[in-house]
Predict the 3D structure of the following.
Amino acid sequence: MSTLAYAVGDSLTMLRRNLKHALRYPAMTVSVVIMPVMMLLLFKYAFGGALGAGISAAPTGGGEYIDYVAPGIILMAATAGAVMTAVGVCVDMTEGIVNRFRTMSISRAAFLTGHVVGSVIQTLIAVALVVGVALAIGFRPNATPVEWIAAVGLLTLLILALTWLSAGMGLVAKTPESASNAPLPLTFLPFLGSAIVPTDSMPTGLRWFAEYQPFTPVIETLRGLLMGTGIGTSGYVAVAWCTGLTLVGYLWARAAFARPAKR
């Protein structure tokens, strides 16, 4: 059997291990869903009337604020999975199981690959549940099947990028508590983009930051795909950001895992 085949087999074993952990201890996965759902309900029923009245020029389809804010909240659900990954990796590092893996005849890449792929699957399931809630409370996308596929592909690429970054955070964190705090800025960064309101409504300094941070082009692309509106150059910028973040996260996580354990 080739080295690649061994690596794939070991990675699948690690993937099964992580998915079984998720089934036995679903609290972390549930937490990924709860916060975006609460945000959806809050912005639909508490703030939707006031905010929606000020977004007359936004691409909201039928004019309902839920059609504007839902794509941003869906993206927030994608970012929430980063905490799950960081904690899971850190727990394995601090509890010593990784030291045992290092002594076994398994691929060195299998540990991280299993965590990353498992987290991507769990986060995609959480995103699907959030989309279901959004549809139930009035979100009405008019995307074609091709646009839905493109939206899912973009979300998957974003989740992959954030998962690799959070894996690196989990590897360098000293405790699971600190690992859970490290990715929090990623989960709130969409608020400083166009997730809730258009960037044009922000003060000059904040507007500049919102327009050039990585989540805004992703949100605008996702919103355009789901609502059937034009996305301009946002799609290319979004893919470029996601690809770059994936590469940075992968190289960081691989380098951090290669260092000798200090615990």
Q: What stands out?
A: The two ends are 34 Å apart (CA to CA).
